[in-house]
Amino acid sequence: MRTYRRLLVSLVAATLVAGAAAAQEPFTLDQVLELLEAKADQEEIIEQIESHKADFELSRENLTALVRAGASDALLEAIEAHPYQPLVITSPAEGAEVGAYARVTGRSQPIPGKHLWLFAHRKDLAVWWPQSGEILLEEDGTWQQSAFLGQPQDVGFDFELVVRWVSDDVHRRMVDYLSRGEATGHFPGIRLPDGEPSATVTVRKTSHR
Which of 67, 99, 161, 170 is deepest in the core (most CB within 10 A)? Predict the structure, then answer.
């Protein structure tokens, strides 16, 4: 009977882990506590948190609840090391070497009432340039956009890429900016518009090809 009960608990726990992972969303505190209460394999929980992240902080209250539920030090470390971020740049990597153009990719959840834009500038300059228009998310939340990184004389400099969700007003201003630039051939640098959430990566321009 005890063997059967342990097997049943293991099957239930495995089903809960698989179900939470299949949602392709970050783990909530309640989900982790439910898995711990079901005696799920904590190594499996850790693997899933590393893939899908944890959508909660290790506050004193949350930490107490997890410890009481039997969370191991390894699980607590995984939760702390893999916080959920609503917007990320997945490529290029920090410090990557690029040419005149960089293909920028990432993932995000849609933010109602906001628009996703990519901005770039040479890191020692105060002004920025909007890149190619509004970014549209794919169904799975991934996105991609191209960034043009300066002129031949900018080889050897660091460039900063920022992607952020901006308001309707900022979106309209960026659309007008690009329309005027296409009509006049002049794209002056601008102040980086406000927006949240945002993500940043710095790359090094090593060629103009």
Answer: 161
Which residues, in sequence order, are CB contacts of 74 under 8 Å at separation 6+?
Answer: 42, 43, 46
pLDDT at residue 57, as a whole number: 86
| Structure confidence at residue 12 as a pLDDT band (50, 70, 90) | very low
169: enclosing H helix or E strand: helix 168-184
Q: Per 3-state DSSP, what percentage of the chain is helix, strand, and coil (rounded to 5)? A: 40, 25, 35
**52 Cβ neighbours under 8 A, 6+ residues apart:** 20, 21, 24, 25, 26, 27
d(CA 15, CA 205): 48
**Domain locations in the chain as residue ranges:** 2-81, 87-205
Mean pLDDT of 25-35: 93
Give the SS3 label for residue 121: strand
Write down the CATH number for the domain with range 87-205: 2.60.40.10
Q: What is the 3-state secondary structure (H, E, C) of 16-78?
A: HHHHHHHCCCCECHHHHHHHHHCCCCHHHHHHHHHHHCECCCCCHHHHHHHHHCCCCHHHHHH
C-alpha dihedral, 41 to 87 to 109 to 48, nearest 10°:
-10
Give, to the nearest 10 degrees, the angle between helix 29-37 and helix 2-22. Answer: 160
Say how far apart CA 166 and CA 136 lie, in whole Å.
13
Task: Answer yes or no: is pLDDT of 11 > 90.
Answer: no
